[in-house]
Design goal:
Length: about 700
């Protein structure tokens, strides 16, 4: 297959979806004097540097350059660091993360497993010679020490580089597992949004440290068949219905003294959130395994005792949110809760928002207000399809900070707000620095212009008003029906219908090849209402599939869609949905590209799968009903056999390749023709340039071969 250096697929792959060169990971100094952030040097440069913008002038300066610090040597990553990046979907290189002290004067970061600090005011950088490979270094709030993890031990070193010592060291495990300190376990990082395993006290004298024993977790082997001389990778994978890692929490002092934090770990084994600020006692959010109940606990760091601050229950499940729980500066509990059919912000016991907003995250808590991100809720007077905005909320009401239609987020401190905005009419993101709500500076982006603008219509389809994006070829001016490509994710935590330019680039490229592309966010996807998200409880398959069908049929009355030629493509949950589509509804869907699908639901992880379907040993019929390979339609000889291309990375440690292998075995046993594309050395992210480029081309080739020969 030939490639074109300047083609969209090649540029899309080379620029990592046109994200390279865009500034990210902002931290604002509490006095409002500077903003730290990461950015690579161009739209094709993967290596991020640490930058500082000085205010009020708005001048940018380089604080740490990975090429200089490594002396031109290539970057080396440990197995743990590779796993951390896979969990966070980090495809960049160089400085991919950093942490600062409270004053945002000292930053610490790991580079090629080595520990570096940068004095952000002075502009100097130094390496601290410590045991490695270093993971997740974090300065103490007072800037006097840096804590980090190396070889499963939590260590601390003085900022000047002396007195390095282990505060908690790995312990011998009773079996094939290991006991580590300061690291997040697999499901915390993959499913809970908790990537950290230690937290400094506000006074910098001690830390809360997670102890993870993964001995109970079953061991899986991830092999590379293309490299038979290499040993398979042994991973601890907690598949649905199997034991999780044992997670405990300790208060650890700088001299190594420790006190265990006590709570009912048998009933609430999931440590989902930890918050420690000067506004109150340390806070924990712990969940029951079924995620129907959770507690917010305050910790006495001297004794390790806990007291309940708040309790929640939900018959479906309890969602986790970024930024909460936490204390307000006045000592009130700040949380996001599903109450009265709405997802609201609560301060103390009082909800401050209503069903007009669907809360997404808490961004900052100030003395006078709370900064949040939210979408228009079910009770909003007008729909805002695909929009996410930033709001200031207090007891007097709310004020929208972001004005233009789009997808917005923010970071705030010291009267300065960094507003990150993506809009439908502008490529990439724009980063504005606001002081007291007024524009003060703009952070430059080096991201490449994609060179195409999506011809997208954001709308709603069907009786349930399903959010949809419809993309037509940019050179299409007729009314002749076009073959349809459904391009969904379609499941929990994955919103694809967004009021943002770059969100639709790949869909537009497919549209320009002669398709009408439809993206539908049915029930189960975020941003609408708690009931909308939780409609998939016990029914991940039929509900999400029905909404794709309903959206397609409703849009056919408004757009020139050829319902006799309908394909569907998807990755991860979208791959699961694509397989379901051609197997269960071949009357509607005529071909499918099935990327990294979850097919045997018992092979996916505990926290995700049990949230929606319960425990497989207690509810085997629910798992069977939602499975792809147990689907009775799979072996129905009377049903039409629709073409299917199955794609899977052999190095995937999230949705392991066994899912696709079991699907292809079931299809073969049923006599169903299909194609399989194994990707050697590729994980769930497919970051490799040539792989990412040719995946688009191969999918297009398959769709062109599959659709013309299909009829209704």
């Amino acid at each position: 297959m030939t490639t074109e250096p300047d083609s969209f697929p090649r540029r899309h792959a080379r620029t990592q979806r046109f994200t390279l060169g865009a500034p990210r990971a902002f931290t604002v100094a509490p006095d409002g004097s500077r903003v730290a952030f990461l950015r690579s040097g161009s739209g094709t440069d993967r290596a991020n540097s640490l930058w500082v913008m000085d205010l009020p002038e708005g001048a940018e300066r380089l604080a740490a350059d990975p090429g200089t610090l490594l002396g031109g040597a290539s970057e080396e990553l440990s197995t743990e660091e590779r796993a951390r990046r896979e969990r966070s979907r980090e495809g960049g290189a160089g400085i991919v993360g950093y942490a600062t002290d409270t004053a945002v004067e000292l930053a610490a970061f790991a580079l090629s497993g080595r520990l570096f600090t940068a004095e952000l005011r002075a502009g100097t950088t130094r390496e601290l010679r410590v045991p490695g490979p270093v993971i997740d270094p974090r300065p103490a709030p007072d800037g006097r020490h840096v804590a980090y993890v190396a070889e499963g031990a939590l260590r601390v070193v003085d900022t000047e580089g002396g007195n390095d010592r282990a505060l908690a060291e790995p312990e011998p495990a009773a079996g094939p597992g290991r006991v580590t300190y300061g690291l997040a376990e697999f499901i915390a990082a993959e499913e809970m949004g908790r990537s950290r395993g230690f937290w400094w006290a506000p006074d910098g004298r001690r830390l809360l440290v997670a102890r993870v024993d993964d001995t109970p977790v079953q061991r899986w082997w991830i092999a590379d068949p293309a490299r038979p001389e290499r040993e398979p990778l042994n991973i601890a994978y907690p598949a649905a219905g199997t034991p999780n890692a044992d997670v405990r929490l300790f208060v650890v002092g700088l001299e190594g003294e420790r006190t265990e934090v006590a709570w009912d770990r048998a009933r609430y084994p999931y440590l989902a959130r930890v918050h420690w600020s000067a506004a109150g006692a340390p806070l924990l959010l712990v969940q029951a395994r079924d995620q129907h109940s959770q507690l917010i606990l305050a910790v006495d760091p001297d004794s390790g005792a806990t007291r309940m601050v708040h309790a929640d229950e939900d018959p479906s499940w309890l969602e986790l949110f970024a930024g909460v729980p936490c204390w307000s500066p006045s000592g009130q509990l700040v949380r996001i809760a599903d109450e009265g059919g709405a997802r609201v912000l609560a301060v103390g016991e009082r909800p401050l928002t209503s069903g007009q907003l669907q809360l997404r995250a808490v961004l900052d808590v100030g003395p006078d207000d709370v900064l949040v991100s939210a979408s228009a809720g079910a009770e909003a007077p007008e729909p805002e399809t695909g929009e996410v905005h930033v709001y200031r909320v207090n007891e007097l009401g709310l004020e929208r900070v972001s004005q233009e239609p789009g997808v917005h987020s923010a970071v705030r401190a010291g009267g300065v707000t960094v507003l990150v905005s993506a809009t439908p009419g502008r490529p990439g993101t724009r980063v504005q620095v606001l002081r007291d709500g007024k524009p003060a500076a703009t952070v430059r982006s080096y991201a490449e212009d994609p060179g195409l603008s999506p011809r997208v219509t954001l709308t709603q389809g069907g009786a349930r008003r399903i959010p949809c994006a419809v993309l037509m070829p940019r050179d299409y001016h007729g009314d002749a029906p076009l073959p349809v490509l459904m391009d969904p994710y379609g499941g929990p935590h994955g919103q694809r219908v967004l009021a943002a330019h770059n969100a639709h680039l790949t869909s537009q490229w497919f549209a320009d090849q002669g398709f009408a592309v439809v993206v539908a966010d049915g029930r189960g996807t975020p941003g609408r209402s708690p009931a909308w998200e939780k409609a998939v409880r016990d029914d991940l398959a039929d509900v999400v599939l029905q909404d794709q069908v309903d959206a397609l049929q409703a849009l056919a009355g408004e757009f020139p869609l050829d319902l006799g030629r309908v394909a569907i493509r998807g990755w991860s949950f979208g791959g699961y949905l694509a397989a379901l589509a051609v197997l269960r509804r071949p009357d509607v869907f005529h071909a499918a590209v099935v990327g990294a699908p979850v097919t045997d639901l018992r092979l996916y992880d505990t926290h995700y799968q049990e949230r929606y379907l319960g425990h497989p040993d207690e509810r085997p019929e629910v798992y069977r009903r939602n499975s792809v390979i147990d689907d009775a339609g799979l072996v129905d000889p009377a049903g039409p056999h629709r073409p299917m291309m199955i794609i899977h990375g052999l190095a995937d440690d999230n949705v392991v390749v066994a899912h696709s292998l079991r699907l292809t075995s079931a299809l073969l046993a049923a006599g169903r023709p299909h194609e399989v594309l194994p990707l050697s050395g590729v994980t769930h992210m497919t970051p490799q340039e040539t792989v990412a480029e040719n995946l688009l081309r191969l999918q297009l080739d398959f769709l062109r071969r599959a659709l013309p020969h299909q009829g209704t």
